[in-house]
Design goal:
single chain; 7-stranded mixed β-sheet; 8-stranded mixed β-sheet
C-alpha cells in the first residue's frame, strides 16, 4: 500500500448551492465531532450505531481523529467553521476493500452533505488502491440506502436479519460521472441564482461625480429598468442617481443578493468580508489591480461565506429577462434581449459581442464578464445556459481553462442542445514545451486547444468578427445536411470569388445533376450558365432568380446555397429587387441560404424574410463560406454517436502504480525511466517492445546479438544514459551490425564517444520494412493527458504530421487520431500498398490512454518509431518520463 498523501482542503457546493469546506479530519476536531453526535436525535443515533449509544458515539469521534494511515481516511465537511458531516473508511483484512461510515449533523439531511463526502472519500480511496466500500446499515434506514443508490456507483445488498450489508464498487464509469455531473449542475445552478436572478443589487463604491465605474454600473441598473431593488454604498451620500445610499454594506436595510464592487483594489477584501458577514450571496468585482494578498483575501471571504464571485477585473453581469432587466455592467449601452449567452474574460471582447449581437438582432440572454476568473468559469456559464430556458446560442471567449476535462464533458453535453462558439485565442503560442521528447515538442497549446474543441463539438473561430458571422448563420438558418454548396451569382467574377472561398473553407461544389441543369436553363434568361457556380447573368429578373433558388434549395444534391449579388443598372431599370427574391423563402426550401453583397458596409447583417425568418447577408464571400463550413462541421459532429471507451485486456493498474512507487523511492525528483523500468511500466498496459537485451560490456553485447539476431544475424546497438532522449541526433545508434566483430567495434565506438555518460547499450534485432509512426502521451499542466499520433521516425519533427486528442479516448477519438494526419492514406493502403494492422494501432492508442489516466505521475511517453505493417506493430523505441505529481480527480466536485 502506498503511503498516505495529505489531500488539500477544497470547497464545494451542496445541493442547495451552499459552500462547504471538505478536508481531512484533524486531532483538534475531537470536540466538534463529539458535539456532532451529541446533537443527534435518539432516532438518528440508533440509525448510525444500531442502538442509542452515547458511548459508541464518543468512541466513533475518537476513532475518526486518529492519524491517517494506509487504508484509513476520514473527511469532514465544514460550514463556516462548523463540522456538519463526517465520512471515513477503514481497510480490513481483505485487500482493496474498506468499511465505510457516514454521519451528517442533525437538521442538515437532504442537502447533499453525505453524498459530497462519499464522492470525495471514493476519489481518495481509488488513489489508495481501494476498489470496494462495504457498509452495514439497518434495513429501515432509508436515507442511507438512498444515499448509496443515488451515488451512481454499482451497489449490491445482502440482508442479514434487521441489517443490510451494502457493497459499493468504486468504478468511475460514465454512469457515475453522469450522476456526479447531475449533482454538480443542480448545486451550481442554485449557487448562481443570486448572481443572475437577484432580487436586490447593491453597488459598492459609487462616486458622487460622473466618470466613476461604480456610478456607471448604478446608472445602467436604473436606466435599464431593473425590476428589483437597488442600493448604493457610499459613506458620503444619502442618495445617488435617485437610489438610496448607505455608508456600508452592513448598514443596508437587508442583505442584497448581489453586490457589485467598484472600490479601489485595496478596499476590496474588506468589502468582501463585510458583504459575507452581512449575508450577501454573490459578488461581481469590477475593481482591477489586486495584488496576490488582496486576491487571496477576496477569495477566502467568498469561500468562507459561500458567495459566488465574478471577476475581479471584469465588466459586470447582465440578464435581459423582461421580468428582471438587470444590467449591472459599465458597457456603452444596454444589451438587446435575445437568445445568445455570452461569457468572456476580456471586457473589450465582451463589449464587441454585446454590440454586435444587439446590432444583428440576435440579442443577449445573460452576459458575464469573467475577468480574472477567480471563481465563476465557462463551465458555470454553460450549465446556466443549458437550463435557463432562454439561451439558444452560447458564445465563450476564454483565455484560460480551470478544469478542461470537466469543461469538455459539460461542453459535449451542452453542444448537443445548442451551438457553442468560441474564439481560438493565443494560436501563435507555439513555444510552450513540456520537455524535449518528440511527443512533448508536438504538444503545442494550439494542438491541445484544437483537441479540446474538436472532441467537445465547439465551433472555434479565429476572430470576433468570424464569431459574429457564424453566430448570425446559426441563429438565422437551419444547419446544412452536408458540405455540398451551390453558388448563384449575377456576375461571373463574384461567382469565382465565392467558389474559391468555399473550396478553401473545406466545402464541396458538386457538379449539378443533368435534370437539375435542364430545369434551371428553363427558368433563367438566355446565356445563363448552369454549372456550379450558376451564372444567372445581369439580365436575371426577380421572379427568375426566385425560381432558380427554389429549384436549388429543393434538390437533394445541394446542402446549402450561396447567392452572390452585385447591384446592376439592369435590375434598377426594371424595378426588380433581387435581394427580395432571396428573402421571400417558400416553405419548401431545404437547408441554409446565405447572401453575399460586396457593396454592403457591415461584415454581416440579418435581413428580414418571409414567415418571420431572417437571411444572413455577408459583405464578402470568405465570411459566408467560413460560416457555412462551421455549420457543416457542426452537422457532422451532431451525427456522430458519443463514442465508447474501450477497456483493453491485460491492464494491471495496481502493478503499474507499484512500479511507479518503487521507482520514485529511488528517484524522488523524477526523470526518465531506465530501459528495464520503462518496459515494465509499458508492460502493465500490454504495450510490448521488440525483443531487446541490456548490455554493459562488449561480451554481453555480443551474446545478446547472437541470441536476438535472427536468421540474418543483423542487430542494432543503442547507447543509453539517463537523460538521453534523441538517440539519432546524438549519433548514439549503430545499425545493421552483423557478427561479433561488428558488434564489438560498434560497442567500443559508442563507449569511446560517450565516455563518462554511457551506462550501457540496448541490443535489438534490425527491424524490417514498414511505416514508421509516433505514438505518445504528454501530461499538459492545464489540459491533462494528451495523446499524440502521427508520422514517426527521424523526420517526425521535420514533417510535423500529427494529430492529438485529450484522454480518455473513445473509439471515435482513436479513429480520428488515426485518420487525421496526412500520412493516414499510407495506413489504409494508398497506391495499392497493403493497409497496416489498424486494429493493433487502435489497441495501442487505447492502451496509452488508459496508462495516461491511471498513472498521474506520467509526464510524457514517447513511442518512436512504431513500425506498422499489415502483420502488426513493433515498438522499436520507447521513452517514459515520470514526475512527482499528486493524483487529481478531474471530475471531483470542487470550486476553483
Amino acid at each position: 500500500m502506498t503511503a498516505v498523501l495529505a489531500r488539500p482542503a477544497i470547497h464545494a457546493l451542496l445541493a442547495d448551492g451552499t459552500t462547504v469546506r471538505v478536508r481531512a479530519v484533524e486531532p483538534e476536531d475531537r470536540d466538534q465531532l463529539h458535539k456532532l453526535y451529541e446533537e443527534m436525535s435518539p432516532e438518528n443515533l440508533r440509525m448510525r450505531f444500531f442502538a442509542v449509544s452515547p458511548g459508541s458515539a464518543v468512541l466513533a469521534a475518537d476513532h475518526a481523529c486518529e492519524p491517517a494511515r494506509p487504508g484509513r481516511r476520514a473527511l469532514v465537511a465544514e460550514l463556516q467553521g462548523r463540522i456538519i458531516g463526517l465520512a471515513e473508511y477503514d481497510e480490513g483484512d481483505e485487500r482493496g476493500s474498506a468499511d465505510l461510515a457516514v454521519a451528517v449533523a442533525e437538521g442538515l439531511h437532504h442537502r447533499g452533505v453525505g453524498t459530497l463526502l462519499v464522492e470525495h472519500l471514493a476519489s481518495a480511496a481509488r488513489a489508495d488502491g481501494i476498489t470496494l466500500f462495504r457498509a452495514d446499515a439497518l434495513s429501515e434506514n432509508r436515507e442511507v440506502m438512498r444515499l448509496f443508490s443515488d451515488l451512481g456507483l454499482r451497489v449490491t445488498r445482502r440482508a442479514d436479519g434487521p441489517e443490510t450489508r451494502c457493497t459499493i464498487t468504486l468504478d468511475q464509469d460514465d454512469t457515475y460521472l453522469r450522476a456526479v455531473e447531475d449533482r454538480g449542475r443542480t448545486a451550481d445552478l442554485a449557487s448562481m441564482e443570486p448572481l443572475f436572478r437577484p432580487r436586490t443589487v447593491a453597488v459598492v463604491g459609487v462616486g458622487r461625480r460622473p466618470g466613476s465605474v461604480g456610478r456607471a454600473v448604478l446608472r445602467h441598473l436604473t436606466t435599464g429598468g431593473f425590476t428589483g431593488r437597488s442600493f448604493a454604498v457610499n459613506p458620503h451620500a444619502h442618495a445617488l442617481l435617485g437610489v438610496p445610499s448607505y455608508p456600508a454594506v452592513a448598514e443596508l436595510p437587508f442583505p442584497p443578493d448581489l453586490a457589485v464592487v467598484a472600490t479601489p483594489a485595496a478596499a476590496v477584501p474588506t468589502v468582501a468580508e463585510e458583504s459575507g458577514k452581512a449575508g450577501v450571496r454573490a459578488l461581481a468585482v469590477v475593481s482591477a489591480g489586486l495584488d496576490s494578498v488582496q486576491a487571496q483575501a477576496l477569495l477566502t471571504a467568498c469561500r468562507t461565506y459561500g458567495m459566488r464571485l465574478v471577476g475581479p477585473n471584469c465588466l459586470g453581469v447582465a440578464n435581459t429577462d423582461p421580468a428582471l432587466r438587470m444590467d449591472a455592467t459599465f458597457a456603452a449601452g444596454h444589451p438587446r434581449p435575445g437568445s445568445a449567452g455570452i461569457g468572456v474574460q476580456s471586457g473589450g471582447v465582451g463589449i464587441a459581442l454585446l454590440e454586435g449581437l444587439s446590432r444583428l438582432g440576435i440579442g443577449v440572454s445573460t452576459f458575464a464578464s469573467l475577468g480574472d476568473k477567480y471563481d465563476v468559469s465557462g463551465n458555470d456559464m454553460l450549465q446556466w445556459w443549458e437550463n435557463d430556458g432562454v439561451t439558444r446560442l452560447a458564445l465563450l471567449h476564454l483565455e484560460s481553462f480551470g478544469n478542461p476535462r470537466a469543461f469538455s464533458r459539460t461542453a459535449r453535453r451542452v453542444t448537443r442542445r445548442m451551438p457553442l462558439l468560441t474564439v481560438d485565442a493565443g494560436r501563435t503560442d507555439a513555444g510552450r514545451r513540456a520537455a524535449a521528447s518528440h511527443s512533448a515538442a508536438a504538444a503545442t497549446s494550439t494542438l491541445t486547444r484544437h483537441a479540446l474543441f474538436t472532441q467537445a463539438g465547439i465551433t472555434a473561430t479565429r476572430s470576433v468578427g468570424e464569431l459574429l458571422e457564424t453566430a448570425a448563420l446559426f441563429h438565422a438558418q437551419p444547419l446544412p445536411a452536408g458540405p455540398r454548396v451551390a453558388i448563384v451569382t449575377n456576375a461571373g467574377g463574384a461567382g469565382v470569388l465565392a467558389a474559391d472561398a468555399c473550396v478553401e473553407a473545406g466545402l464541396v461544389l458538386p457538379a449539378l445533376a443533368s435534370e437539375l441543369a435542364e430545369d434551371l436553363s428553363a427558368v433563367l434568361p438566355d446565356g445563363a450558365a448552369v454549372g456550379n457556380p450558376v451564372d444567372v447573368t445581369a439580365a436575371v429578373g426577380e421572379d427568375e432568380l426566385r425560381a432558380c433558388l427554389d429549384l436549388l434549395t429543393d434538390h437533394r444534391g445541394v446542402d446549402a446555397v450561396v447567392v452572390a449579388l452585385v447591384p446592376t443598372a439592369v435590375a434598377a431599370a426594371t424595378g426588380d429587387d433581387l435581394v427580395r427574391a432571396v428573402t421571400q423563402e417558400p416553405a419548401g426550401r431545404r437547408g441554409p441560404t446565405v447572401l453575399v453583397r460586396m457593396e454592403q458596409g457591415l461584415s454581416v447583417r440579418l435581413l428580414p424574410a418571409t414567415g418571420g425568418n431572417v437571411i444572413p447577408s455577408y459583405a464578402e464571400p470568405h465570411a459566408a463560406a467560413r460560416a457555412l463550413a462551421h455549420a457543416a462541421r457542426r452537422t457532422a459532429w451532431l451525427a456522430r454517436p458519443p463514442g465508447i471507451r474501450r477497456i483493453p485486456e491485460g491492464i494491471d493498474t495496481r502493478r503499474s502504480r507499484a512500479v511507479a512507487d518503487d521507482w520514485f523511492a529511488a528517484h524522488p525528483e523524477g526523470g526518465w525511466l531506465g530501459p528495464r523500468t520503462c518496459a515494465e511500466l509499458l508492460g502493465c498496459y500490454g504495450i510490448t517492445q521488440v525483443p531487446w537485451a541490456w548490455a554493459e560490456t562488449e561480451d554481453e553485447a555480443v551474446r545478446a546479438a547472437k541470441r536476438l539476431g535472427g536468421p540474418d544475424g543483423r542487430v542494432v546497438l543503442k547507447a543509453y544514459w539517463p537523460g538521453l532522449v534523441h538517440k539519432s541526433d546524438q549519433h548514439a545508434v549503430c545499425l545493421d551490425l552483423i557478427g561479433a566483430a561488428q558488434v564489438r567495434s560498434a560497442y567500443k565506438d559508442l563507449r569511446a564517444r560517450f565516455d563518462g555518460l554511457m551506462t550501457g547499450v540496448v541490443v535489438q534485432p534490425l527491424a524490417g520494412r514498414g511505416t514508421e509512426l509516433l505514438a505518445g502521451v504528454v501530461q499538459d499542466e492545464v489540459f491533462g493527458p494528451l495523446i499524440i499520433f502521427g508520422l514517426g521516425g527521424t523526420a517526425t519533427d521535420v514533417f510535423a504530421d500529427r494529430a492529438a486528442r485529450l484522454a480518455p479516448l473513445t473509439d471515435l477519438d482513436v479513429h480520428d487520431l488515426i485518420s487525421s494526419p496526412r500520412c493516414a492514406s499510407l495506413l489504409f493502403g494508398a497506391s495499392g500498398s497493403d493497409p497496416v494492422d489498424i486494429d493493433a494501432l487502435e489497441q495501442l492508442l487505447h492502451r496509452l490512454s488508459w496508462m495516461a489516466e491511471n498513472v498521474p505521475q506520467l509526464a510524457e511517453a514517447d513511442l518512436n518509431p512504431v513500425l506498422a505493417t499489415s502483420g502488426g506493430l513493433s515498438v522499436l523505441d520507447a521513452r517514459v518520463r515520470l514526475l512527482p505529481r499528486r493524483p487529481q480527480d478531474p471530475y471531483l466536485r470542487r470550486l476553483r
